[in-house]
Design brief:
The chain has about 160 residues and is an alpha+beta fold. The chain contains five helices and six strands; from the N terminus they run ααββαααββββ. It has a single domain (about 1-155), classed as Nuclear Transport Factor 2, Chain: A, CATH 3.10.450.50. The radius of gyration is 16 Å and the shape is globular. The two termini are about 30 Å apart.
């Protein structure tokens, strides 16, 4: 949680939403009474460690990442990227939301399969606003960071 909140550059703020907390592997427990919008939540960490201990699940992490892109959800997608690359260039949540939100047909994940201990191959399709079709194959390198499986790097052909 600390790594996520502190990833923002000095002139910005890193907010931790419920969806982002869940995406990076934190369990969310609502505290208080009333409507959820006015309640606060408390991420649950393993006692005494400060880390949520989740299994290393590269295929699941890559699947969640591409599903977030398909929904043009840059916040959730960015939360699945290693902290040192979040908010930068193609891993910037606003850039991802804008790019994938402008598609004529959103990204549709076709397959995700392991290709080694840290490497996952994802195949997907989307159609740009100008009608150009992208049938892509991406090699996604994952890493186990802070008790979570995160995206380290992506090599895609489209």
């Amino acid at each position: 949680m600390v790594a996520y909140v502190t990833h923002a550059p000095p002139e910005k703020m890193g907010w931790l939403s419920e969806g982002t907390a869940r995406a990076i592997g934190l369990d969310v427990v609502w505290v208080g009474i009333g409507g959820r919008a006015s309640d606060t939540f408390s991420p649950q960490l393993s006692p005494g460690t400060g880390v949520s201990h989740k299994p290393y699940v590269p295929v699941s992490a890559v699947t969640r990442f591409y599903r977030a892109l398909g929904a043009a959800d840059g916040d959730t997608a960015a939360a699945l990227v290693v902290p040192e690359k979040r908010g930068i260039g193609p891993f910037n949540q606003l850039n991802m939301a804008k790019f994938f939100g402008s598609m004529r047909e959103p990204l549709q994940l076709q397959s995700v399969r392991p290709s080694g201990s840290d490497l996952v191959v994802a195949e997907y399709r989307y159609v740009y606003s100008n009608g150009k079709v992208c049938n892509a194959r991406a090699e996604v390198t994952t890493a186990y960071v802070f008790g979570n499986t995160l995206i380290q790097a992506i090599k895609a052909n489209c």
